[in-house]
Each structure stands twice: as C-alpha cells, then as structure tokens.
Design a protein that fits this description.
Strand order of the largest sheet of chain A: 1-2
GO cellular component, one term (chain A): plasma membrane
Domain MrpA C-terminal/MbhE (chain A): 714-788
Distance between the termini of chain A: 52 Å
Strand content of chain B: 5-15%
Helix content of chain A: 55-70%
Family (chain A): Belongs to the CPA3 antiporters (TC 2.A.63) subunit A family.
Order of helices and strands of chain B: HHHHEEH
Domain NADH:quinone oxidoreductase/Mrp antiporter transmembrane (chain A): 128-416
Domain MrpA C-terminal/MbhD (chain A): 637-699
Shape of chain A: elongated
Number of helices of chain B: 5
Largest sheet of chain B: 2 strands, antiparallel
Number of domains of chain B: 1
Oligomer: heterodimer
Strand content of chain A: under 5%
Strand order of the largest sheet of chain B: 1-2
Radius of gyration of chain B: 18 Å
C-alpha cells in the first residue's frame, strides 16, 4: 500500500540513510543515490495527473494524536500536485547539477541529508491537510533552509545569512501557529478541508480577521514579501544549487501556496484582497527596482526572485476579487488572475532555476560573479550564454518564451480589476501603472544580466580562472529547464488543462461547480492593450537601460542606514543587549538567590491555589492507620533530613541525603509498589555516584557568605515550602474529581499482552509519553556532554571566525 | 596515591556479571513482573559505573569500546523507529503488537514489539547515564 503519506516519509528515510555511505568504499558521487529519490517520486506523482485532471482528489489519513484532532492526513489535489511536481522535478535536476557543482571534498553527507530533509518537509507542507502537521513541516523547511544556507559555516556571512532567514521565517511561522490555533478555536477542526466547508459560518467570528493576518504574516515572511524580503539576498550565501532549489523554485513559494490554499477560507474578505494585492505589488516594484543596482549576479537574481514572488502574490490577491461579492459564474472574470498566478509560478520555477544554475556555472568556472569583472563571455561559453538568454528573456516577458504568456496574462488581470467595484477605487486605478513600471524595471535588469555578463569586453585579468565552457553534466539541468521554457510557450494548454485547471478547482471550490475555471492560453490575441503594454515595456526598458548612468543617482536617495537591513540588525543588537541586561540583573551567581526565586514562585503559585480553592481543609479520617514500622522509617528519615543541616563535611551530607532516597524506596516496598522501589533504589545509587563524581570539583565546604537576605526570611520560606508540600500531599486525597480510570488498565493482559500494568502503560497505552521522555533524556544527555566537553576554555582561539 | 585494590577488583569482576545478568532478567521480566526497559537500562548502567569506579577509566574504555553517546542516539532512534514501524503496517503511530509463538526449546513464547521499544529506552538510559558520569569525571 503506497500512499502519499509514505511518499513524504521517503526523503526523510533517505536523509537518515545518507550518513551511512562510506566515502572511501564508494566510487560514485553520493549525489547519484540521492538523485533516485526525487526522480522516483516525480515519476510516481506524474502517474496521478490523469486522475487529478479529471477532478479526482485523494485523501489518506494516518491517525497521529486523534484526541487533539491531529492526524497525518494527506490531501492530493491539483494545487498540491503542481507544487509536489515542482519540488521533486526541480529537486532531481538540482541534485544532478549539485553533483558537478560540489566536489567530493565538501561535506557531501551533510549537504544531501539537509537537502533530502528539505524535500520531505516541503512535500509535507503541500500535501498536509491537517494544520498542525502542516505547521511542523513548515518550520522544518525553515530549519533545513537554515542548515543549507550555513553549509559553509566557517564563513561569517553564511552564518549571519542563515540566522537572518531563520529568525524572520520562524517568527512568521509563529504567526501561522497562532493563526491555525485561532482557526481551530473558531471551527473546532484542524482539517483545512473542513475549515473551508464551515467558512460561511466562521467568517463572522471575532478572531477570523486576526487569524487571517497572522497566517498572511507567515506567508509573507516565507515568500520574502516586502518588508520581510531582506532575508532572501542574505540567503544567497548558500551553495548555488540550494539557491536555485530552495530560494527560487520551491521554499519561497510555500507562502504563495499557503495564500492559494487559504483563498477559499479568507478570499471573501475585502481586507484579504487589498492586503495580498498591495503587498504583492509593492514587493514586485521594490524587488525589481533594487535588482538594477546589484553588482553581484546572485544578488540580482535574489531581488528579481523577490519581485517575481510579489507578482505571483498580487495575482492571487487579484484573483480573490472573484469571491468578494459571492461566488457566481460571473466571478470567472476575476479568477483568471489566479490562473495566471499558478501558470507564472510554474514558469518562474523553470526560467529562474535555469538562471541560478547559469550563475552557479559562471561562479564555479570563473571564480567570480561580479558583473563589474565579467563581460564578453558569449563566444567563450556559448551554451551557457544561450541558456541565460532564454531564461532572462522569458523573465523579461518576451516571446517565444513562457514568461511572455504569463506576463500578458498578468497585464490582463491588472486591467480586469479596473472593472471591480472597489471601496478604494483610486488605489485600484493605480494598479496597472505599478505593474507596468515594475515590468519595465524587470526588463532593464534582465538586459543588464545578459549584456553585462556576456557582451562587452572580456576581462581575463579580473577573473580567477580563464573563461571556458562548463562540463556537460553541469549544463544538463539548466538546458532541460531552458527547453521547458520554450516548450511551455508553444504548448501552454497541455499544462493549463491537465494541471492548472484542477488547481483552480482547489483555489475556488465554490465557483468550480458553476463555471469552467480553465483559461485558454494563446500566444497571439490580436492588438489589444496587453500587447501594447508589452511593446511599451520593451521600448521604455531599452531607453532606461541606455540612460542608466544618468538616473542611477536615484539609488543614493536611499542611504544604507535607512534600509530595512539596518533596522533588522539594530533590532537584533538591541534585543541582545536588553535581554542580557535583564538576565544579568537576576543571575547573581548565588545559588541561594536562585533557590529563593524557585521557592517563592512555588509558594505563590501552589500556595495561592491551595488558599483560593479552599482545598487546605484536610480530612484524614479516611486514611489508613499508620503502622509502627512506618513511624520508624518516617522518623529516621526526618532525623536524617535535619542532620544534613548540621553536617560538617560534604561527604556526610551526600550520604545522609541518599539515606532519604533509600527511605523512600523502603516506603515503596511497604506500599507494594515493587516497580517504583526498584527504580528508586537504582536511581538513588546512580545519583550518589554522580554526586561523588561532582564532589571532586566542588569548592571547600563552607557556608556561603551571608548576603542580603536575613536568616529569618530564609527560615520563613523553608517553613512555607514544607507546609505547602505537606498540605498538598494530603489534600490530593480529598475530593474525587472523576471516577478512577484504573479499571481500564486492569485489562492490560488482554489489550497489551502484559501482566505488569505499569509497564503496559509505559510501553503501550502511553507509549507516546515514554517515547518523548526518552528523546528528552537523550537531549539532556547531549546537552550535559556539550556543556562539559565543548566549553570555551581560556586561551582558546575563536577559530570559527576565520 | 596508588592504593592496592585487589579485593575490590576481585569482587567487582564477579559482581559485575551478577549485575549484568540481573539487568537482562529485569529487562525481560518487565512484561509481566517488575522490571522493564528503564530499570534494566539503569542497572546495566550501574554495572558500567561500578567498573569505571573500581578500575581506571582508560582500561575499561579499551575493554568496552562503545561511544555511549551513540548508544543513546541509537536507542532513541529505535524507540521512535518502532513508532514509525507500525505506520508501515497501516496501523496508527506507536501501535504495539504481540503474539504467541511456538519456539523450539522455549515452548510457547510471547513475542511483542514492546520489547523493541523498551530496548530503545534501555539503550538511551545506559548511554545517557554513562555519558553524563564519564563527562563529569573526565572533566579535569
């Protein structure tokens, strides 16, 4: 039984197996084994296209934590299938590319383990129907992205870029978590499909709009929307295959996926339409505007990715206009924008993936990617040049490349929105102008990319290696993508009918039943406004490109210290400073103080509860009588406890303390709890050994200096804690709040095959708890090991900053 | 100061095997009687700790060439892995199964997946306890 759930697990499994490969015994690059994973999954997912294009969807559930409605449910529909095909398809190509990009001297096991981790997490995001499971996968993509950006962790900039991306995307992730929990509070279900079904009722709820904004926050941070875009250029410190895969083709589109997935939920809100469209358009403009000033090819592509993501985002915003006045067959007029968005999303992955790989080739072969040092490579690297031209002309929106089609459709959708009866009419009227200006700027940076790199003067003295064509293995993946760019232009409707139309049914389920959401994509639709806009883009673009030196001064209007980057680092710096000050104010290096904090909290919280709930009235008449033997043990334990206070040497204190532990063990024996008695005995033994080991390092046994607090206060705290503890222990027996649940466990022999109820609970009924405890124990162990062994010793040099 | 610990050494050599046997017994008996993975692991760990106390650490390290951090990690992997194992059979996460089998020599024996799960628990306990104690002792 091979389900989508298992398909998600396969990359994780492979990631766990990658470190087992031994480099020496292996002649072949590990990448070839890794390649099999996305390639096989891609082929497997392709087999779903016929059924999905006929409108089928596939749901499969594995129960996870049913009591909290958290189940590992996968939902395969048109939308998730498109994303999954991109993830596995581009993933396979990027893996091939990386085999030639990364030499065997690099830490390949780490690289491929992280890459597979990302692949699994990303598949999890797009297939998850359960919001909590989706959230976990969502954060996992952030984590794997962090690890991949910091792959060359000896570079300071890599670490900073990784930190920046993690901080920004994870804070957005928290927004999503809060938003999901709010949705759960409103609808009472964790399943996205069920949330969509109940939307007509839940949209009246007070938390509905806050939930929407929180989820949008997550989507915007992940998809690098203004003003959260700053992490994407810094993330370019990652190896280029990673940039091509995560930071242009897949991960940054997770935010767009989320917007598309939740359009049926929130799309009817006017605020959704305005927020998504505006943020998308601002990002589109700001990204393209900033791309022009970049001199690093990768940074240029990063800003161009930001800009293109903004464009896709805005199209999804425009598409939600269809839901504003209730879904009807007339709404199809506006859904065209969302169709264009999905189409451009696919196109962007093809041409931007190819462009990133081209930059990687240039960087790899020539040793630089600074456009001031490049030039005249067209004749020296003809294949690379061809791919770059196809990619950038597609991005600029020129025929015969797929970017032209989606750009035209983008223009169509910004023109159609003019007919929308909006509350903010002036803003809506501006939309086509912003779109057009941003397209002109896009054209300019595409020209810059091609002309500055491949034409002009060849400057060999500025390069680290003389220019030469890349090996065929490296050219393979970008060539495939470039071929796709052209193929999609000529046969766009194959894609449109089989993939995009079913995806549209997922985005607009309410309209899908009433009208055909498909759009026929045509290369030529006569002389209309869209075509004139494109011609205008080309003319204005060429003029702007030629006059670039004259108007480049505009960028000096935005000095470095006013940038969002500066804001980010200021916030980071201030946060660190403030939190350090706060921490230092209460971390006094006196154990006495720390104990006081803990016990004061205990007194206030537990004691306060005892008093406020009135449960301090104890009835001990029902309790069993105390036998003489129990008295003896209790009294001797009391004597031991008090004598600790007066012991002269530390050794005595430790031994007397362990007497207390063994006393408890004896009590367990008397009260017929052999499991607990055994455990207590062994734990006590091991702890005593641990104490004795630590004993060696402790300073001489002397009273800590009397400091601030008087003895009286300490005495009061001690007595209060003791009293509260005793009362709590006795009060537990008081009223029964619910019936005993032990009768269920008495059947352990039939249910779990074990006669030991305690262990049947630990290993079977509540195995989840035990599993997590084991993991926590492991983490604690590793933590202690790290603290003790890897501490910064005096005089050690900081090697990581070299 | 080099003390002559002949008696301690002799006793420990003998006692360690008793403790080891006890730990295996406790581990296996956990299904029906007191015992189980946690306690079995702890007893096993205390056997190792006893060896480390009686002899010097380097000698024992050579005799027992495990990296206990890895033992702990392996244990956690096994425990979590059994959870995923049940998924492969279409069951819910961490579903445990048991059955009665006729084995030669043992007769009718109950075999359960809890044992695998508990093996993981035991390994984590051994690994973590020994790692912590060794780290503290060696940190000179």
């Amino acid at each position: 039984m091979f389900t989508v759930n298992l398909a998600i697990m396969i990359p994780f499994l492979a990631a766990a197996l990658v470190p087992l490969f031994r480099k020496r015994t292996l002649r072949i690059h590990i990448g070839w084994f890794v390649f099999l994973v996305p390639a096989a999954l891609f082929v497997y997912l392709l087999s779903y296209i016929p059924s999905v294009s006929s409108g089928e969807t596939f749901v499969h559930t594995i129960k996870w934590i049913p009591s909290f409605d958290i189940n590992f449910t996968t939902y395969l529909d048109g939308l998730s299938l498109i994303f999954a095909l991109l993830i596995t398809g581009i993933g396979a190509l990027v893996t091939i590319y990386s085999i030639y990009y990364l030499s065997s001297n690099e830490n390949l096991k780490h690289f491929y383990a992280y890459l597979l981790l990302f692949m699994g997490a990303m598949l999890g995001v797009v297939f998850s129907d359960n919001m909590m499971v989706m959230y976990v996968f969502w954060e996992l993509t952030s984590v794997s992205s962090f690890l991949l950006i910091a792959f060359w962790y000896h570079r300071k900039r890599s670490r900073e870029g990784a930190q920046k991306s993690l901080l920004i995307t994870v804070s957005g992730g928290f927004g999503i978590l809060a938003g999901f929990l709010m949705l759960y509070a409103i609808t009472g279900t964790m399943s996205i499909r069920e949330v969509i079904h109940t939307v007509s009722v839940s949209s009246e709820h007070a938390l509905f709009v806050p939930a929407m904004f929180l989820i949008l926050l997550g989507a915007f941070t992940k998809s690098a929307q203004f003003p959260f875009h700053i992490w994407l250029p810094s993330a370019m410190e990652a190896p280029t295959p990673v940039s091509a895969y995560l930071h242009s083709a897949t991960m940054v589109k997770a935010g767009i996926f989320l917007v598309a997935r939740f359009t049926p939920v929130f799309g009817g809100e006017a605020l959704w339409l305005y927020t998504v469209t505006s943020i998308g358009l601002i990002t589109l403009f700001w990204g393209s505007f900033n791309a022009i000033r970049q001199t690093d090819l990768k940074a240029l592509l990063a800003y161009s990715t930001i800009s293109q993501l903004g464009m896709i985002m805005s199209m999804f915003g425009l598409g939600s206009a269809a839901l504003q006045n209730g879904a009807s067959s007339q709404s199809v007029f506006y859904t065209q924008a969302a169709f264009a968005a999905v189409f451009h999303l696919i196109n962007h992955s093809t041409f931007k993936g190819a462009l990133f790989m081209v930059v990687g080739i240039i960087d790899h072969e020539l040793g630089t990617r600074d456009i001031r040092r490049l030039g005249g490579l067209a004749s020296l690297m003809p294949i690379t040049f061809t791919i770059a031209t196809i990619g950038s002309f597609s991005m600029a929106g020129l025929p015969p490349f797929n970017g032209f089609l989606s750009k035209e459709m983008f223009f169509t959708s910004v023109l159609r929105i003019l007919e929308f009866d909006a509350t903010w009419q002036t803003w809506v009227n501006v939309i086509p102008y912003i779109a057009w200006i941003a397209s002109v700027l896009t054209f300019v940076y595409c020209l810059l990319f091609v002309v500055k790199t491949f034409f002009g003067e060849y400057k060999e003295e500025k390069l680290e290696h003389p220019a030469h064509e890349a090996p065929y293995g490296m050219l393979f993946s970008p060539s495939i993508l470039a071929v796709l760019v052209v193929l999609i232009f000529f046969f766009p409707n194959v894609l449109g009918e089989h993939l995009i139309t079913p995806a549209m049914a997922s985005v607009f389920p309410t309209i899908a039943g009433q009208a055909d959401l498909g759009v026929h994509i045509s290369q030529w639709h006569g002389f209309n406004t869209e075509l004139f806009m494109t011609i205008g883009v080309v003319v204005a673009g060429i003029v702007l490109y030629l006059t670039l030196p004259y108007w480049k001064k505009v960028y000096q209007l935005f000095p470095e210290k006013w940038s969002f980057n500066q804001l980010y680092s200021n916030i980071l710096e201030q946060t660190e400073k403030r939190s350090k000050a706060i921490t230092n104010s209460y971390m006094t290096a006196y154990l006495q103080d720390y104990m006081t904090y803990i016990y004061l909290f205990f007194i206030l919280a537990v004691g306060g509860l005892l008093i406020s709930s009135g449960s301090y009235i104890i009835d001990i008449k029902q309790n069993n009588p105390i036998s003489a033997f129990e008295w003896i043990i209790a009294i001797s334990m009391m004597i031991a406890a008090i004598s600790i206070l007066f012991s002269k040497s530390r050794l005595t204190a430790i031994l007397v303390n362990s007497f207390l532990g063994y006393g408890v063990a004896i009590f367990f024996v008397i009260f017929r709890a052999p499991d607990l008695a055994l455990t207590q005995t062994v734990v006590e033994t091991v702890t005593t050994v641990l104490f004795l080991a630590a004993y060696y390092f402790l300073p001489d046994w002397k009273k800590e200096k009397e400091h601030r607090r008087s003895k009286g206060l300490q005495m009061a705290i001690s007595i209060a804690v003791g009293t509260i503890f005793t009362i709590t222990a006795l009060a537990v027996q008081n009223g029964k709040l619910f019936d005993s649940i032990s009768s269920y466990y008495e059947n352990s022999y039939e249910l779990a095959g074990g006669k030991n109820i305690v262990n049947a609970i630990l290993g079977d009924f509540r195995a989840f708890d035990t599993m997590l405890e084991v993991v926590v124990l492991l983490i604690a162990g590793i933590g202690i090991y790290a603290i003790i062994n890897l501490k910064d010793r005096k005089g050690d040099a900081h090697i990581e900053d070299k | 100061m080099k003390t002559n610990n002949v008696i301690l050494h002799a006793v420990v050599k003998l006692v360690v095997f008793i403790i080891l046997t006890l730990s295996v017994y406790l581990f296996l008996s956990g299904h029906h009687k007191p015992g189980g993975g946690f306690i079995g692991g702890l007893v096993l760990a205390s056997a190792f700790v006893l060896l480390f106390i009686a002899f010097d650490i380097e000698a024992i390290r050579k005799a027992i060439p495990f990296d206990f951090k890895r033992v702990a990690a392996l244990g956690a992997f096994i425990s979590v892995g059994t959870g995923f194992g049940s998924l492969l059979f279409g069951e819910n996460f961490l579903t445990q199964a048991f059955g009665y089998f006729d084995l030669p020599f043992f007769g009718t024996t109950e075999l359960t997946t809890v044992t695998i799960f508990e093996t993981g628990v035991a390994l984590v306990v051994v690994g973590v306890v020994v790692t912590i104690i060794l780290s503290i002792v060696e940190d000179v």
